[in-house]
Design goal:
Layout (H helix, E strand, L loop, with lengths): L21 H16 L3 H7 L3 H26 L2 H6 L1 H18 L13 H11 L19 H4 L13
Helix pairs in contact: 1-3, 2-3, 3-5
Length: about 160
């Protein structure tokens, strides 16, 4: 057995010391997806032809697991549990949201794609025919006879400043 420098004698070269083992993560995902949906994600992804369709099919199959993860972390975990591992929980939530957004479920999406009644009323009032006769403009106030006396005299172009 080959060992590199610094590897403990009880550890195999295939076992990683740091980081995630993606093969183990994929097998765990396959098990979770099968438990949630009864489908094999590898087989489902192989059936899709092109790479983009394959990725969408994988996200579609894994969406049930992503939703379970999202609900478990947001609704089932206590604040104290989340406080102990903020970054791990945040990564799992963001990953689950990414999977769900590929499938087409996004937070804040408006399911009704229509104008509000208020906006329709405003548009019809603006572009439609006038509904009531326009009122005449109010008459101007009569001039105030004391008005010129209150004004300060402005110097003309050639006047000198008295100061």
């Amino acid at each position: 057995m080959l060992r590199h420098k610094g590897m403990p004698p009880h550890r195999k070269p295939s076992q990683r010391r740091y980081g995630l083992d993606l093969a183990r993560c994929w097998e765990l995902l396959r098990k979770r997806v099968y438990d949630a949906t009864g489908l094999d994600i590898d087989q489902e992804m192989r059936q899709a032809g092109e790479p983009v369709a394959r990725a969408r099919r994988g996200a579609d199959v894994a969406s049930a697991t992503a939703m379970r993860t999202l609900l478990a972390l947001t609704q089932g975990a206590s604040a104290a549990d989340l406080e102990t591992d903020k970054s791990g929980a945040r990564l799992m939530i963001e990953g689950s949201r990414a999977v769900l957004s590929i499938v087409g479920l996004r937070a804040g999406d408006v399911l009704e794609h229509d104008f509000s009644d208020r906006f329709k009323d405003a548009l019809s009032a603006f572009y439609g025919p006038p509904t009531a006769a326009l009122e005449p403009a109010p008459a101007a106030l009569p001039p105030d006879p004391d008005e010129p006396a209150r004004r300060r005299r402005t110097p003309a172009a050639g006047d000198r400043d008295p100061a």
